[in-house]
Structure formats: structure tokens, C-alpha cells
Amino acid sequence: MSKGVLFDATKCIGCRACQVACKSWNENRSEDTANRGTAENPPHLSADTWTKMRFTEIEGKDGFQWVFTKLQCMHCEHPACATACIVGAFEKTKEGAVVYDAKKCIGCRYCMVACPFGVPAFEWDRPIPYIRKCTFCFDRLKGGMAPSCATACPSGALSFGDRAELLAEAKRRIETAPARYVPHVYGEKEAGGTCWLYISSVPFESVGFPKLGPERMSVFSDPLMHAVPPVAVVVAGLMTGIYWFSKRREKIAAHEDISEEKE
Ligand code: SF4
Ligand code: SF4
Ligand code: SF4
Hints:
The protein is an alpha+beta fold. The chain has helices at 17-26, 80-84, 110-114, 138-142, 148-152, 163-176, 218-227, 229-262, and strands spanning 3-8, 52-60, 63-71, 90-92, 98-100, 121-122, 131-132, 158-162, 196-199. It contains 8 helices and 9 strands. A hairpin with a 2-residue loop joins strand 2 and strand 3 (63-71). The longest helix has 34 residues, at 229-262. It binds iron/sulfur cluster (3 copies). The site of one iron/sulfur cluster has 15 residues, from helix 1 and strand 3.
């Protein structure tokens, strides 16, 4: 059964424990975030930051208020990244996680263009770059554990469980406290549905979430992909060549290191 996470923005206190837990479990590098001219830290999802809190100060019915929202891969029911990938490097698992196989990736970055949430990030500063994104802590999921971020949350803003049960719980909360929530579960239908679901006291557009219909994004990317096979072939060939060249250069460097040690 597909798993999911329900994020309740009315319970989030913006402590960023989830951000830290994600970095810690996945052993991702820290980032230099000084002098970026933004209160958000770090400002964007990246190859080293798979989740981040967005801080938005907006006017509600009780005056100005801070609203905190958590960003990461949404683990779409019909992932556009997977449809766009010409070598099948993305896979939607039965657990709900959308996982990535670096061994198959040729670095064309179609997935970055296709994702409606701007999630996949490229390792621009690595000699052999790969795509990186939230994995839904698939290594933990397979062992029956909750994602690291959900486990770390001290306020109950993140609930992990079966997607269908979380969706029912989200609707129950909205129904029993209509003054607390807008009547919208983000992710129930957007882009064909996502495993990560959100409820909030303010409309999702006001905190920067893309307004998406219920159509699967793959409906749009399928014809696009099929319309450009010559380009795809050229890009694939080029990226494979770069990959081969980089690998070879790495092997030469390793060989030179070993030779120096022997001398
Ligand atoms: S949010 Fe983007 S990267 Fe994540 S599964 Fe959906 S399309 Fe793929
Ligand atoms: S599910 Fe795992 S990888 Fe994804 S944001 Fe949470 S801790 Fe990070
Ligand atoms: S750990 Fe929980 S309360 Fe803290 S920022 Fe993340 S979601 Fe919000």
C-alpha cells in the first residue's frame, strides 16, 4: 500500500528539525548560506538540501502571521520526472517513493524540466554529477521505519502512514475545524495526486505552491518526449560521451595517485 506524509501547516512551528534530520540521515553536505539576501536558510532545494522550510509572512483574518511550509519531492502518483526520463532512471515504487538510479542516468536533465515542483537538482560542482532529490527515505521505508524528517518533528506537523488513511485524516481535520483550515488538501488531486499531502490555514497559492489541475503531468510530457527523438538521441549521445570522458579522467587520476604512492 502506498505510504504518504501529511503536513499540517497549522501545527508547524518552523523549528527546522526536519531539515536537520534529513541532512543527518542522508549525510548531505551543509551549505554556505551567508549573505544570500533572504531569511530562508538555505534559499532553495539543491543537490545537498533535499528539504527546506519556506517562511511566508502574510495577512490573515487575525492580522499578519507567519506560515511555515515544508518543501521536498512530492512523490507524485504519476511522476513527470519518470515519464520524461529517456533511460528509465526514475521508478515509482509500490511504497509510494519515487526513486532514482544513478547508474542509469545519462545527465540529460529532462527530469528537472518536467517536474512541476522544481525538485530534481543537479550536482553542478561535482566532476561526475548526478541528479539528487528527496528519496522519501526509501532505505528507512523498506525497513518499516518512518522518514527521518517525520520522526524528528516535535510538534506533530508531520504524520507518516498509509496515503489513503492520511487523506481521510486531512479531510476529517478540515471538517471538524473549518475555521482553522482552508477547505483544500493540497496533493489529493494536484498533477494526478501526490504522496505528500498538505493542509493549511491559508490558500496554498499564497505560500508559493503551484496551482495545478488534476491532470497527470505526464499527459503533457509524453507528446513532448515523443516529438523530439532526434534531439533526445543527440543529447543522450553527448552526455554519454561526457560521462565516459569524465570516468576515464577519474580512472587516470586514480592511477596516477597509485603510481605516485609506489615511487
Ligand atoms: S515532485 Fe518532481 S521529482 Fe518528485 S516525483 Fe513529482 S515529478 Fe518527480
Ligand atoms: S523523506 Fe527523507 S529524504 Fe525526504 S525530506 Fe524527509 S528526511 Fe529528507
Ligand atoms: S520539524 Fe516539524 S515543526 Fe519543525 S519545522 Fe519541520 S515540520 Fe515544522
